[in-house]
Design a protein that fits this description.
Length: 191
């Protein structure tokens, strides 16, 4: 088992939770500590994809530790240098926009801000219906920032949702390994 501590933050793109939890499981088999962090939506909303309490229980079983879902729980990440890398998967359009604008008002965005103060890597796994529309500007801004690495992404349904982008969540572990080495996994854009 590798000794790096990986933070793993989930936002409310519920349709991606199954592949995200699969990637989380793979990471928990490689790294001694995978600390789960939930956005307010991920922590509280029951959706057609499952109940919030059921997802929390599964996440805590996978990671073998309690979820952090409050500002006060994630604030020490920066000062105490608690993480070696932070994954945000799924990273919704709302979270992308907040990160691009420097807004840190949720557990996930504050975890990111706190972690980045130590110049350590953050892996973003995009999942937004507006990736080629309203969120394109945010993605562009984040692509230009230091210490941010993207899980390969592309259009998930060009015919029915032409502006929608989603990361290949199965590539999260490989993206993490590359980001820990200071490299962006390639290719980043899927065909």
């Amino acid at each position: 088992m590798r000794e790096e501590t990986i933070g793993f933050a989930l936002c409310g793109s519920f349709c991606t939770f199954e592949p995200v939890l699969s990637a989380m499981t793979r990471l928990s088999q490689v790294y001694q500590t995978v600390q789960p962090i939930l956005s307010g939506a991920a922590a509280s909303i029951d959706s057609r994809f499952g109940a919030a309490a059921d997802f929390r229980a599964r996440i805590e079983a996978i990671c073998r530790c309690p979820v952090w879902d409050s500002i006060s729980q994630v604030e020490p990440i920066g000062p105490k240098k608690m993480l070696d890398l932070l994954v945000i998967a799924p990273c919704t359009g709302n979270t992308l926009a907040k990160l691009a604008a420097g807004i840190a008002d949720t557990p996930v965005t504050l975890a990111c801000k706190a972690h980045l103060r130590n110049a350590r890597p953050v892996v973003l796994a995009v999942s937004t219906n507006d990736g080629l529309a309203a969120n394109a500007k945010s993605i562009g801004q984040l692509l230009d920032r230091k210490h941010l690495y993207f899980v390969p992404f592309g259009q998930d349904d060009p015919a029915k949702k032409p502006a929608s982008l989603v990361a290949d969540m199965s590539q999260i572990p490989e993206t993490v390994a590359e980001a820990l080495a200071g490299r962006q996994i390639q290719p980043m854009l899927l065909r």
